[in-house]
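User: quick one, sequence for these tokens?
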């Protein structure tokens, strides 16, 4: 290798090495992140009454629809609920609440999307013998 070629390659390598920290210090581009965790499956409202859908997802869809309707009555600024379906606990129950039979319990995380922010909440839903929603409850973490 000739001296000129060696020094040209050395200068090019040094220039790239010195430029690398400048590229690494660029701030990341801002992107809009939807509420809730990345990925995950959300039940469609029609899933609550669809016989092709898994019964657990039918109950989750019914709970989501019922909870969203009740929340919108109290606060119209609420746009949507994101239920972390992958992290839900879905259990069958043989208990009563007063004289009402409770056949299903769904617990997990939900994100209530509002016009300004969304927050993580604990979510509880109780269902009856015909998978009707008896009770939904949210509490901030």
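Assistant:
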């Amino acid at each position: 290798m000739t001296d000129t070629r060696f020094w040209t390659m050395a200068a090019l390598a040094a220039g790239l090495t010195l430029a690398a920290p400048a590229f690494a210090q660029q701030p990341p581009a801002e992107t809009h992140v939807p509420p809730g965790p990345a990925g995950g499956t959300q039940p469609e409202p029609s899933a609550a009454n669809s016989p092709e859908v898994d019964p657990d997802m039918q109950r989750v869809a019914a709970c989501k629809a019922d909870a969203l309707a009740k929340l919108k009555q109290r606060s119209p600024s609420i746009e949507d609920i994101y239920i972390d379906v992958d992290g839900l606990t879905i259990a069958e129950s043989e208990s009563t609440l007063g004289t009402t039979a409770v056949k299903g319990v769904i617990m997990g995380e939900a994100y209530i999307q509002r016009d300004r922010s969304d927050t993580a909440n604990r979510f509880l839903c109780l269902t009856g013998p015909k998978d009707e929603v008896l009770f939904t409850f949210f509490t901030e973490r």
